[in-house]
Amino acid sequence: MKKGLILGIVASFCLAGTVLAGGGGGVHWGYSGETGPAHWGSLAPEFKMCGEGKSQSPINITGAVKGDLPELKFNYDDSDLHLVNNGHTIKADYSSGSSISVGGDRYNLLQFHFHSMSENAIEGELFPLEAHLVHANAAGELAVVGVMFKEGEANPLLEKLWKYTPSKANSTMSVSGSIKVTDLLPKSPAYYAFTGSLTTPPCTEGVRWMVLKQQVTASQEQIAKFRNYFDGHDTNRPVQPLYGRTVYK
Ligand SMILES: [Zn+2]
After folding, report:
1. Rounded to an integer, what distance in angstroms lies between the CA atom of residue 178 and that of residue 77?
2. CATH top-level class for 6-228?
3. Which secondary-structure segment (H or E) carries 240?
4. If you measure from the C-alpha of residue 110 to the centroid of ligand 1, how many angstroms do you get, rounded to a whole number?
5. pLDDT tens digits for 83-123?
């Protein structure tokens, strides 16, 4: 296997944080100052849910109630390695054919990306890194699996990702060889469940969130390397009010 052959570096336009973000294309937003999270809702008409939504993500996971949740099954296969630095996060677009199933619902894995600090909190605690595995079903409804990293042993998949991640914003890189996103998962598929939104503009609601209870580890260097892609700045939206939503466990 020819590992690590760089196939190409392609400049691209701002991807507005997620492949699924419609509208508001080209509107600059960030994580601090006048284009920071407190102002997202007024930056563009398409972003108004960021300010007005009552089912926004991330949240502080607390007071979870027993919900007899269906088992979360990962049907993840290998993928080509295709990385995007969109100026807001590092995103790995995933080859088609991988999915999760949960209670008879099936969602295809589209991409995964990271935030530092974590976006969701558990009992008020933020983690240094959170991965979001973004899925969609045939109807286009989204399901995001959140994985929390604490500082500890290095993660082999992060090692591979960071090795090829373009350090320049708005650039992509495709590398031969393959990755498997299961290398980011903890042993237990137990999760917290709640409804929420995209955590970046346009903050679209109706997202099925599943945050894994068990954490994995990344080394201090790996966490620092991710943060350095963004000059050491945070890339997390603060937690949002629950407005009566229930978190299930
Ligand atoms: Zn995210």
Report:
1. 10
2. alpha beta
3. none
4. 13
5. 999 999 999 999 999 999 999 999 999 999 999 999 999 99
